[in-house]
Specification:
The complex is a heterodimer.
Chain A (H helix, E strand, L loop, with lengths): L7 E3 L9 H5 L5 E4 L2 E4 L9 H5 L5 E3 L12 E6 L13 H11 L3 E4 L4 H13 L7 E2 L4 H10 L13 H15 L7 E7 L2 H8 L11 E4 H11 L17 H5 L14 E5 L1 H12 L8 E5 L15 H13 L16 H7 L17 H17 L13 H9 L9 H9 L5 H12 L19
Helix pairs in contact in A: 3-8, 13-14
Chain B lengths: L1 E7 L8 H12 L4 H21 L2 E8 L3 E9 L6 H4 L9 H5 L7 H8 L2 E7 L3 E9 L1
Antiparallel strand pairs in B: 1-2, 2-3, 3-5, 4-5
Helix pairs in contact in B: 1-2, 2-5
The chains are: A alpha/beta, B alpha+beta.
Chain lengths: ~450, ~140
C-alpha cells in the first residue's frame, strides 16, 4: 500500500487472527488475510481501538531510539501533563523531574505552557465571523484524521491552531536560545500518549514539517524513569514548572478545552461517540453550539493507549494537582520573557485537506455500477457480520468483492449452501477456508484463548 | 441506483435514518460535500414532517449520473393550503412536537431552499407526496 507511512504494526508471531481488532475499527481499516490482521494505512486514523481489543498484544507502536538524544547538547523532553498522573502517588513532581534528568534530558517542559497564548489564539479564531460554527478543536489528531476521511465537509470547521506540543516546542526553543543555545544544539523529544500523536508529530497535518526531533512512547519513558527514580531528597525543579497553569494541567482531560471557549460548547470523548456526533453535525442537526472538543479516547488523553496508570486515577491526580497551580492569566508574559505575538504566529496551521476514504473511484457511472453490484451481493450474504470471511461485516465484504479484494467463496455461509447444492465438494470448501485462515486454524491447540488455567 | 425506506409516524427516535443512509451512498460516489449537505437537510426535513404529522410514509430514492430524485410519500392528514405551508414560520405542529424541538415552521421553506426542484402534491385526509430533485 502506497500512501501514509505507518506508525503501528502487527507482530505476525503474536497475531492469532481472532478478528477482535477488525470488528472494533471505526473506519473498517482492518481485514484478516492468511490468518493475520492487516491494516489499510490509508483508512487508519490511529485511534488505537485495535490495540485495546487485541487479546495477545500483537500490535506494536513505532519508537525512536532513546540513545539518539545524546547527539544534542540541549536535550529537551516535552511531555503532556498526564504523564505526571501515571506515577504512584508516593513520588513527588520533583522526584519525577529528577528521574527524567537521570534518563538523560537536560530540560523538561510539560507541553501545556504558556497556555494563555494558545487560549487567546483560539479565541481569536472563534471571534472571527468567517469561522464556521461549531468550530472543532484539532487537539486530537485521530479526530482530525477521522474528519478528513469520513466527514470531509467538516474540515472547514477545524480550528487552524496547533496543538500544545507545538506551543511548548516553540516556547522551549525561544527560551533556550535566550540562554545562549544555538538552534541546532537543541534536540526536542516528545513523550507521546498514543499513536495518533506520534503520527501528528511525525507526519503532521497542516504543517510543512515536524517540529520535534524524535518521539518517546510514554510507557517506555515511564519504565525508564521508574528504573532510576529516587525515593529520597532531590533537587528542587519547580523553576521548570513556573509557567505551568491549572488550565494547562487540565487541558488534555475531557472538558479541559471546551470549558474555556464559546458561550455554548460540547466535549466528547470516545471514538464511537465522536462518530455518532459527527454524523449529526454533518446532517446539520446541531444548532447554536460555538465550540466542540472531541477526543478519540475515553477520558481523553488519560485513556491513551501508551499510558500505564488507570485513567480515572490519572484524572483524579491531575485535578488535585491543578488546584495547586495558578490560573493561566495570572502568569505574566514579561516574567517568563515570552514573545507572545511571535509565538501566536507560529501556532497558525495551514488549511486541512480532504482525504475521503470509502469512495468507489472517480468515475461516477462505474462507481454506481459497483455500488449496485455490492447491494445485490449483500442480499445473498447472511447478514450476521460474523467476520469469518476476514471482513468486518457483510456489507464490507460485498464492497471488497466489487473492488476485487474478496471472492464470493470467502463467505462460509455461501460455501455451505453451494456444498448442499452440489456445486462444490466438501474438500474444496475446506481448502477455501484454509486458504483464508491457514491450516493451523483447524488443529487442536491448547494455547488458544480460554484454554485451561487461563480462564475466560 | 435505487434505495427505499419506510418511516413510522410519531417515532422521532428513528427520524434521520434514511437521510444518513443516503448520505453514506452519496459520499461513496464522491459527490461534492455542499450538494450532499443540501440533500441531507432537505430529506431530513421531509422525514421529520412525516414523523410529526403523518401516520406512516415511504422514501424512494433514485440516483443517476447527474441527479438524485427523492420521493417522500405519506398517509396522513394532507396539507390544505400548500402556499401557506411554504411560508417561513407557518406551523401546524402540536405543542408536544414543538416541545421536542421540531415544528418551527421551517420544514417546507428549508426543503425549497436546499433542493433544485420541489414538487408537492397533497390531498386532505389522504396524504402528501413530496418530490425533490437535486443535480450534482
Amino acid at each position: 500500500m502506497i500512501g501514509n507511512p505507518t506508525y503501528h504494526s502487527l507482530d505476525p508471531a503474536k497475531c492469532i487472527g481472532c478478528t477482535h481488532c477488525m470488528k472494533v475499527c471505526p473506519t473498517e481499516a482492518i481485514r484478516v488475510v492468511n490468518g493475520l490482521a492487516v491494516i489499510d494505512d490509508d483508512r487508519c486514523v490511529y485511534c488505537g481501538q485495535c490495540h485495546r481489543a487485541c487479546p495477545t498484544h500483537a500490535f506494536f507502536v513505532v519508537q525512536d531510539d532513546l540513545a539518539m538524544i545524546r547527539s544534542f547538547k540541549y536535550r529537551v523532553i516535552l511531555f503532556p501533563s498526564i504523564m505526571i498522573g501515571q506515577f504512584p502517588e508516593k513520588y513527588s513532581e520533583d522526584q519525577i523531574y529528577d528521574g527524567l534528568k537521570k534518563v538523560g534530558f537536560t530540560h523538561i517542559y510539560e507541553v501545556e505552557q504558556p497556555q494563555q497564548v494558545l487560549i487567546d489564539s483560539i479565541n481569536e479564531v472563534l471571534k472571527d465571523k468567517e469561522t464556521p460554527k461549531p468550530a472543532i478543536s484539532i487537539y486530537c489528531p485521530a479526530i482530525v484524521r477521522l474528519i478528513q476521511g469520513r466527514y470531509p465537509s467538516l474540515t472547514e470547521n477545524l480550528i487552524l491552531r496547533k496543538a500544545p506540543h507545538n506551543l511548548a516546542a516553540h516556547f522551549a526553543i525561544e527560551q533556550l536560545m535566550l540562554e545562549g543555545a544555538l538552534r541546532e544544539e537543541i534536540g526536542l523529544f516528545y513523550a507521546t500518549p498514543c499513536i495518533a500523536k506520534i503520527a501528528a508529530v511525525k507526519s503532521p497535518v497542516g504543517e510543512s514539517e515536524s517540529i520535534v526531533d524524535g518521539i518517546v512512547n510514554m510507557n517506555k519513558l515511564y519504565n525508564e524513569v521508574m528504573k532510576v527514580i529516587s525515593d529520597g531528597e532531590v533537587e528542587d525543579h519547580s523553576v521548570q514548572r513556573q509557567n505551568l497553569s491549572a488550565e494547562g494541567i487540565m487541558w488534555s482531560l475531557t472538558r479541559g478545552e471546551s470549558c474555556h471557549f464559546g458561550s455554548r460548547s460540547i466535549a466528547i470523548d470516545g471514538i464511537n461517540n465522536a462518530v455518532r456526533f459527527l454524523e449529526r453535525l454533518e446532517n446539520d442537526q446541531v444548532h447554536g453550539i460555538d465550540f466542540i472538543e472531541m477526543r478519540a479516547c475515553d477520558q481523553s488523553c488519560a485513556g491513551g493507549i501508551l499510558l500505564t496508570g488507570n485513567r480515572f486515577m490519572t484524572v483524579e491526580r491531575l485535578e488535585r494537582r491543578a488546584k495547586r497551580y495558578p490560573a493561566a492569566k495570572d502568569i505574566s508574559s514579561e516574567k517568563i520573557r515570552v514573545n507572545t505575538e511571535g509565538l501566536k504566529e507560529k501556532l497558525i496551521l495551514d488549511p486541512i485537506s480532504h482525504k475521503p476514504h470509502f469512495i468507489f473511484g472517480k468515475d461516477r457511472l462505474k462507481a454506481m455500477e459497483k455500488m449496485n453490484r455490492a447491494q445485490r451481493i449483500v442480499c445473498f450474504l447472511p447478514g450476521i457480520d460474523c467476520g469469518a470471511c476476514g471482513a468486518p461485516n457483510c456489507h464490507a465484504l460485498a464492497e471488497d468483492m466489487v473492488n476485487n479484494k474478496a471472492k464470493m467463496s470467502d463467505c462460509i455461509f455461501l460455501q455451505q449452501m453451494w456444498e448442499d447444492e452440489g456445486k462444490i465438494t466438501a474438500g474444496k470448501a475446506l481448502l477455501n477456508v484454509q486458504k483464508k485462515w491457514g491450516t493451523d486454524r483447524f488443529k487442536a491447540d491448547c494455547n488458544k484463548r480460554g484454554r485451561r488455567n487461563e480462564g475466560f | 441506483m435505487k434505495l427505499f425506506f419506510s418511516i413510522q409516524g410519531g417515532d422521532f427516535t428513528r427520524a434521520g435514518h434514511p437521510s444518513s443512509e443516503v448520505k453514506k451512498v452519496l459520499k461513496q460516489l464522491d459527490i461534492d460535500g455542499k450538494t450532499i449537505k443540501n440533500i441531507v437537510i432537505a430529506l431530513y426535513e421531509a422525514e421529520v414532517n412525516v414523523v410529526a404529522h403523518a401516520w406512516r410514509g415511504t422514501v424512494s430514492v433514485e440516483i443517476d449520473e447527474n441527479k438524485i430524485i427523492i420521493v417522500v410519500e405519506d398517509e396522513g392528514p394532507g396539507i390544505p393550503d400548500i402556499e401557506q405551508a411554504m411560508q417561513a414560520g407557518f406551523s401546524t405542529a402540536s405543542k408536544k412536537v414543538r416541545e421536542m424541538g421540531f415544528g418551527a415552521g421551517m420544514g417546507l421553506p428549508n426543503m425549497k431552499k436546499n433542493t433544485d426542484e420541489l414538487i408537492i402534491e397533497s390531498e386532505v385526509g389522504k396524504g402528501t407526496k413530496v418530490k425533490m430533485i437535486n443535480c450534482f
